[in-house]
């Protein structure tokens, strides 16, 4: 869904019996929402409006956890693939990004994590504030 307003209203109304229940949950901080879904949607719109084709990577292996990974977005810069992870919470863990980097090291470009934190670079990963997604 590219319409964030529609996405929000659909997500919020899908689990509530009435508008009163929704309002009550909101007032008492009991509204459990997958914020990551909204952040990823916003980043997708920003990347697309910047001219990027949107790709993602997902691998699931029941027998080998080393082969399980999910990357939110892949963009191409030059001849390199740049993986992007979007983080909405306090934890900025990047296990899938690390596994992806090992598996596809020869074709890999810069690695990015988008979150609500300030710009930084650590261990070869560029951490960007969410609002900078359109600059990639």
Number of helical runs? 4
| Major β-sheet strand ordering | 1-2-3-4-6-5
Shape descriptor: globular
Uncertain residue segments:
none
Portion of residues in helices?
Answer: 25-40%
Question: What's the count of strands?
Answer: 6
H/E topology pattern: HHHEEEHEEE
Let me know the largest β-sheet.
6 strands, mixed
**Overall average pLDDT:** 83
State which percent range the strand residues make up. Answer: 25-35%
Classification by helices and strands: alpha/beta
Measured between the Cα atoms of the first and last residue, the distance is 22 Å
Rounded to an integer in angstroms, the radius of gyration calculated over CA atoms is 17 Å
Summary keywords:
136 residues; alpha/beta; six-stranded mixed sheet; 32% helix
Question: Can you give a write-up of this model?
Answer:
The structure is a single chain. The protein has 136 residues and is an alpha/beta fold. The protein is built from 4 helices and 6 strands, in the order αααβββαβββ. A 6-stranded mixed β-sheet has the order 1-2-3-4-6-5. Strand 5 and strand 6 form a beta hairpin. The longest helix is centred in the N-terminal third of the chain and has 15 residues. It starts with a helix and ends in a 7-residue tail after the last strand. The mean pLDDT is 83.
């Amino acid at each position: 869904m590219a319409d964030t307003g529609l996405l929000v209203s659909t997500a919020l109304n899908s689990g509530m019996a009435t508008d009163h229940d929704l309002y009550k949950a909101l007032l008492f901080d009991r509204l459990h929402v997958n914020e990551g879904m909204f952040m990823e949607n916003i980043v997708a719109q920003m990347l697309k409006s910047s001219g990027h084709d949107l790709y993602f990577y997902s691998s699931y292996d029941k027998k080998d956890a080393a082969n399980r990974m999910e990357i939110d977005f892949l963009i191409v810069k030059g001849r390199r693939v740049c993986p992007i992870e979007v983080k909405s919470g306090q934890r900025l863990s990047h296990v899938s990004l690390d596994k992806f980097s090992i598996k596809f090291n020869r074709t890999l470009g810069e690695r990015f994590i988008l979150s609500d934190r300030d710009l930084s670079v650590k261990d070869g990963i560029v951490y960007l504030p969410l609002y900078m997604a359109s600059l990639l």
